[in-house]
Every structure is written in C-alpha cells, then in structure tokens.
Amino acid sequence: MNEVKHISFFEVASKVLKALGHPERLRIVEYLQAGERNVGDIQREIGLSQPITSQHLRYMQRHNILTSRREGTRLYYFLASDLIRKLLDCMHSCKVSLDSGDMQVGDIFPEIKRSI
Amino acid sequence: MNEVKHISFFEVASKVLKALGHPERLRIVEYLQAGERNVGDIQREIGLSQPITSQHLRYMQRHNILTSRREGTRLYYFLASDLIRKLLDCMHSCKVSLDSGDMQVGDIFPEIKRSI
DNA sequence: GACATATATAGCAAAAACGCTATATTGGTG
DNA sequence: CACCAATATAGCGTTTTTGCTATATATGTC
Question: Do the chains contact at B20 and A21, CB–CB below 8 Å?
Fold first, then answer.
C-alpha cells in the first residue's frame, strides 16, 4: 500500500495555470491577494451570481489554488500556496509594465490596438 | 471605422495562462526558452507525434504564445512576448524552489506525497 | 514533373469547461 | 423545531479541448 503518486513539475504547474486561465477567476485571486474573503464579499466585488461565484471558488479549491476556512455560516477563501502568490506577483509586475507603457498589449496580442 | 477592441488585462492574461495550462505545451515553451527550434526538433525533444506537436504549436501561435519563421522546408517557432518570458522565469524560479526543497509539492498539491 | 521531407489540416469521438436555473445543505437564532 | 442567511450542488445544454488517424500542402532536389 502507501501508494506514491508520481507527478512532474509540469503537471502541477500546468494544472495551476489552467485553473487560473479564466478572467473571472483571475479577478478573484487578485482580489484575494489582499487577504481572505468570504463568498458574499467576492460575489459583490467581482459582480457574479452566487452559484457562479461558488462554482469558481470550488473549482479553484479542487485545483489547489484556494483553501477555505469556515466561520459560522460564512466560508472564507484564501490563496493556497506560494506558487500562486509568486505567479500573481509576476502577473502584477507584467500589469505594471503594461500600465507604465514599458510593454505594449500589442506585444502580447498583436491584433489588439488599444486596451484599458 | 478603425474599430478599437477593448480588452482588460485580465482577459489578456487569462488567455495566456490558459494556453500555457497544458503539461506538454509547458514543456515546449520551456524548451523554447533557449531559443527558436523547428517542429522536428520539438517533436523529438518532447516525444510527441508529429500532428500533436504541430497542433500544440499552432494553438500556441493562435494564442500569441509563439511566433514562427520559415526557413526552407522548416518552420522555426519561438516565444512571442515578454509576458511569456516573464511567466516562464517565474515558473522556473518556483521549480527551483521546489527542487531545492524550499517549497514542497504538498504546498501546492496537498494530496501528493512525493514527486520527481 | 516525380519524388522526398517537413509540416499542417480535416474529421471525429470522448472528455472537460461554462453558464444557467432550480434546489439542497449548513449553521445560527428564537 | 421553524425559519433565515450563506453557501453548495444537481442537472442540463452548449462550447471548447484533446488526441487520434488519415490526408493534404509546401518546399527542395533531381
């Protein structure tokens, strides 16, 4: 017994990337960078319906992006690992580069002329 | 006319993350960090069939992860943007943390006991 | 043009992701 | 226990992804 799962870094990392590869989920984890938030907070902040919000959160928990902690009737979700935090830092520094004009959106999506 | 597409950073970033969210594709882009390579090189290095290799490469080109350059009968693919390079650097530093033992795979995937 | 090599595409079936509505569960309070 | 607020799940139709086999296209050489 005592089965040991063998999984490469690429497997782990690609699962994480895939789970983050959704605009609303990315918004959610960015929001959670500031600290844990309960479902209602997240729902209001991101502007999604209750079921969709819950589904994204569950999905991310299943994919090891988030963990949760119950407090009475509320569920608080928070970032689950340092890999996630590192990735978000990286995304953030890219965002800053974009905003400051050091990098153009066209560098990433050539067909797009302008963006927010 | 002169339509201007409006797209947020989250949209751009999540598309990139999603496109990178596949183990073989992640292997491919990591391989391409060293510089451009043609389809045959990539196929042999990663160990995929020719059609699958081509499909992944096309997919990533469509999603602005890669660009290509033809040289005779060969097609050379290479990383398309600084965002990709930054992300890969980030992944790499996480990989190093994992390898050096500073970070445990269990920090990312709690149910996994051990990994390569 | 015939042929070889390198790469791309078509077509298909299985699986997964997505968004939605309706309904269920869980915990707290009286 | 009844009831409310917070959150999760079921079920469903649509779309996207994935991997595969077979076939097509493009380029170079003779």
Answer: yes
The pair of structure tokens assigned to A46 is 């991101």
Cα distances from B67 to residues A10, A46, A58, A84, B22, in angstroms, run 22, 34, 35, 27, 18
B69 CB less than 7 Å from any atom of strand C? no
For residue B25, the chain A residue with the least C-alpha distance is: A14
pLDDT digits (tens, 9 = 90+) for A67-111: 999 999 999 999 998 888 988 988 888 778 767 766 555 555 544
Q: Does A100 touch chain B (CB under 8 A)?
A: no
pLDDT tens-digit map of A64-77: 899 999 999 999 99
Q: How would DSSP label each residue in B33-88?
A: TTS-EEHHHHHHHHT--HHHHHHHHHHHHHTTSEEEEEETTEEEEEE--HHHHHHH
Return the structure tokens found at A61.
Answer: 């928990």
Q: Share the mean pLDDT of chain B.
A: 83
pLDDT at residue A20, as a whole number: 95
Contacting residues for B102 by C-beta, under 8 A, at least 6 apart? none
Class of domain B9-81: mainly alpha
Q: Give per-residue pLDDT as tens, B55-81.
A: 999 999 999 899 999 999 999 999 998
B50 inside 8 A of chain A by CB: no
What residue segments make up the domains of chain A, in order of their start?
9-81
Residues of A in contact with B12 (CB under 8 A): 105, 108-109, 112, 115
Which residue of B7, B91, B111 is in closest CB contact with A13? B91
